[in-house]
Amino acid sequence: MKLSDDITVIKGIGTKTAAPFRRVGVFLVYDLLTYYPSSYKTYPPISDVLDAEDDTAVALCVSIRKLDERYAGGRLMSIGQATVYGAPVQLVWFNNRFLKKMIHPGVRYVFYGKISYRSKIPEIVQPQFFSVRDYEKIIGKKLPVYPKVFGLTDKMIEKAVTNVLYEISVGEYLPQEITERYGLCSIDTAFRDIHFPENDEILAKAQKRIKFDEFFFFMLSQRRLAEEESQVPNTLGRFDLSVADSIKKALPYSLTGGQEKALDDVLSDFNGKYVTQRLIQGDVGSGKTIVAFIAMAVMAENGYVSAIMAPTEVLARQHYVKFMKMTESLRLDIPCVLLTGHVKGKARTAALEEIASGRPMLVIGTHALFQEKVEFHNLGLVITDEQHRFGVKQRESLSSKGEAVFSIVMSATPIPRTLAMIVYQGLNISTITEKPSVRKPLKNALIKPAMRRNAYALFIKEIRAGHQGIIICPLVEPSENAEGENVEEYYERIRRSFPDDITIGKLYGPMPADEKEKAMDDFSSGKTSLIVSTTVIEVGVDVPDATVIMIEDAQKFGLAQLHQLRGRVGRGDAQGYCIFVDTSGAKEPSKRLQILQQSNDGFYLANADLKMRGPGDTFGVRQSGDIAFRLADIYSDSEILHCAWQSVDQIMQEDPSLSKYPELCNHVQELSDRTYSNL
């Protein structure tokens, strides 16, 4: 077995079992090893009395007195309720229709779960149950809990990882001087201990090594790419920039100071001596897209093709429609071409022929743009929107379709400049901090669950006024490993309780691709007026009519992710509202939620988050925009980031070709190959 083998070589994984793995990006053996646990569960000692505090885990050894089963929502959901001998507690299960076959009255079991005293009778919801003998084997062990995947259980993932670790040993690729200098364990040890740590100390060492690697290879790729491009002469000629002034004068609004500065930076690059890469970093709703459009128009007016790559089909289509309208209203004779995975048949053939013609144009698409069949001629500019959704190698592959191609990457992740300069080595950085004056500041509210009725009234009012709404849940469906609102039950609940004139949709990551795109398309087109979604909606939906969003279990999300989510509303000229629902039961809301309620400034929030966060946050609900890192976090792991940066800097100064480090060079190539194998 090799790391580059397909996952079907793993014992127990056939074609059917491989399908849900592939849905979450696990194609190769290496992908499975890097599909890290989202948290760990340590099973406490057995107790036969109810003495745990509220919202803490308990392992209760009791026998069932009575087990009842009923249905809700027209038999859409089964609810099992059990009373037990010896303890005043009720056990509750959702959608487990085989309970009566699995649990027998009078037999002693160990029921594991979090106890809640918020009802009249103490409850354990979705408890796991074991025989006493089986439970005694796992007491005190740290067992992995993996991200929820339709069609897979923790046991199935755990078994697959165990089989891989039994078959192979991962060879070391970092130079020994680096591992010794920073006290890093071997990569093979790190992979074994990240999945099955014996204790917290061993887990911390494994995390440190993997975070170091994530930072190291990202920055190494950025540095090598930047050094290659810094030596590419600008052969496109002296640009006429007058069309930029014409567009700015014709716009129905004035650009902000930040937009003007970012645009000036880009246009200066076009007339510079060398081809450049530039990062345009702007807060949610800061107006990066108009800067991109003007830059692309300048390219077209000077005889070159430009392409913008969006992370989703919906966002690509939205850019296409917006750019078409702008070229028409501004009377620019510049064709726009759309190329995504859903453009097929004659339309796809026509799009490919148009792109290959080399005529000056604006090309808008998804990752479909860098497939081998797509041939560009006279490509002068590549723009990557929401850049952290694409790997460095993916962006490079699109840029390589021309001889001298300028590159712009756009990010809505507000990173403090000192960190941005380290993370984006070699990139020129432009920052947009202001927001267009046409957009009104969001009104934020932090509420308790009892106030949901008032929130629903606001949704109904806004929707009947011609606007749209979004409700975010942290989970897809009820889970034994996590508590919180879930899309499936929430959707059914509000569908029954909201007025019939309000159309409601649902959206979550594991949905089939066609269903997911349709749900997003229905919402962006206005066919759906209210959508219940997981955080998958965080990127890829730009709906100016969306004015109100409610985020359930807000305390479970990271501050940056909450800020990105609320950026989905208030993008038009109407007032926007964001409602954070704190379900923690705490008397005082967390500092993060209070800060979010007080400020809409993403850069202020980023700096506040940097001060508040600590290493212990690593396995909470992950923050967004962390540039495809699976474990590492540029805020709380800034010390490891600096160490990785120093190592990259030293290696690139001493041996930029990596000829002295064959194992490292081979691993860089393997990482590059895996990028393409997963497309």
Q: Any chance you could write out the topology, listing elements then pairs?
A:
Blueprint: H1 15-23, H2 29-33, E1 39-42, E2 57-72, E3 77-84, E4 90-94, H3 99-102, E5 108-116, E6 123-125, E7 128-130, H4 132-138, E8 142-145, H5 154-167, H6 176-181, H7 187-195, H8 200-230, H9 242-250, H10 257-270, E9 277-282, H11 288-301, E10 305-309, H12 313-329, E11 336-339, H13 345-356, E12 362-365, E13 379-384, H14 392-399, E14 406-411, H15 417-423, E15 428-432, E16 443-447, H16 452-464, E17 468-472, H17 487-497, E18 504-507, H18 513-525, E19 530-533, E20 546-551, H19 559-566, E21 577-581, H20 591-598, H21 602-612, H22 638-654, H23 662-677
Parallel strand pairs: 4-6, 9-14, 9-15, 10-12, 10-13, 11-12, 13-14, 16-21, 17-19, 17-20, 18-19, 20-21
Antiparallel strand pairs: 1-8, 2-3, 2-5, 3-4, 5-6, 5-7
Helix pairs in contact: 7-8, 8-22, 9-11, 10-11
Adjacency order of strands in the biggest sheet: 11-12-10-13-14-9-15
> What integer value in Å does the Rg equal?
27 Å
Q: Determine the N-to-C terminus distance.
A: 22 Å
Unreliable spans: 388-392, 614-626
Number of helices: 23
Strand content: 15-25%
* Main sheet attributes: strand count, strand direction, barrel closure: 7 strands, parallel
User: What structural class do helix, strand and pairing data support?
Assistant: alpha/beta
| Helix share, percent | 25-40%
The number of E-state strands comes to 21
CA-based shape:
globular
* Whole-number mean pLDDT: 82
